Amino acid sequence: MIPGTRRDEVLALRKFVTDRRAMGDSTPLLRQEHLDWAISHCGLVLDTDQIPEDHEFLGYYTRRRIDRLAEAALTIQDPSHPRSALLAALMKVLAAPASVAALTPFLEHDELSVNLYALWRLERLVCGSSRHLADGTLRKAFGLLLDDPEALMRQRGSFRCAVIRDGIFPPPAWVSQLARSGR
Predict the structure, then answer these.
(1) Contact 127, 138 (CB under 8 A)
(2) Whole-model pTM?
(3) Contact, 137 vs 164, CB < 8 A?
(4) Do 62 and 50 form a contact (C-beta atoms < 8 A)?
(5) What's the pLDDT tens digit per position in 115-168?
(6) Is residue 29 part of a domain?
(7) Is 23 part of a structural domain of the chain?
(8) Range of the structural domain that residue 84 is part of
(9) Would 4 be classed as within a structural domain?
(10) In whole angstroms, how far apart are CA 33 and each of 26, 36, 135, 140, 147?
(11) Count of alpha carbons within 13 Å of 3, Cβ hemisphere only?
(12) Tally of CA atoms within 13 A in the half-sphere of 67 that contains its CB
C-alpha cells in the first residue's frame, strides 16, 4: 500500500484547515545530522500500524499495538535476538548491499519505516548525503505524487535530487497505481 493513501479523518481535517499535510501523513522533518544518526542506529521508527482513523485515544492502545511496542523495546535492548519483525526488517535494510538494485525493493515494503530507511540509504548512495530527505525535497515529491502523479512525472527532471530525477523514488509502481486510480 502507498503511504498516505488510506483515509484518516483527523489528518484530512487538519489538511483542510491548514491546507498542508499533517505530520501523521508524512515523514518527520529532522536536521540531516539527526536523521543520519537516528537511522544509522536503528533509532527512528514511525508507528503507523493500526492507527484508528478517528484517533480515538483508547483505540491507540490495543493489545496488538502494545505487543509491537514491547517487542521493539526488547529488540532494542538485545539486537542479537530480534523479537520485533519491524526492527528486524529495518536492520535488514541497513545490512543490505549498497546498490540501487538491492535497496529499491524495500521502497515497496508495507511498513513506512522500512520505506524511509531504504530511501535514506538510496539518497546517501545516489546523491552522496541525506540532504534531500532532510530539506523536504523528497517530501515535496511524495506530496506531488499524492496530489497529481502526472505533474510529478512532468516535473521529475527539474528536481535536484537524483533519486527523484532517475525515477527511483517514488517507486514506479506507486506512480502507475495512483495514475490509474485517477488521483
Answers:
(1) no
(2) 0.76
(3) yes
(4) yes
(5) 999 999 999 999 999 999 999 898 888 888 888 888 888 999 999 999 999 999
(6) yes
(7) yes
(8) 9-181
(9) no
(10) 19, 5, 12, 20, 30
(11) 25
(12) 6
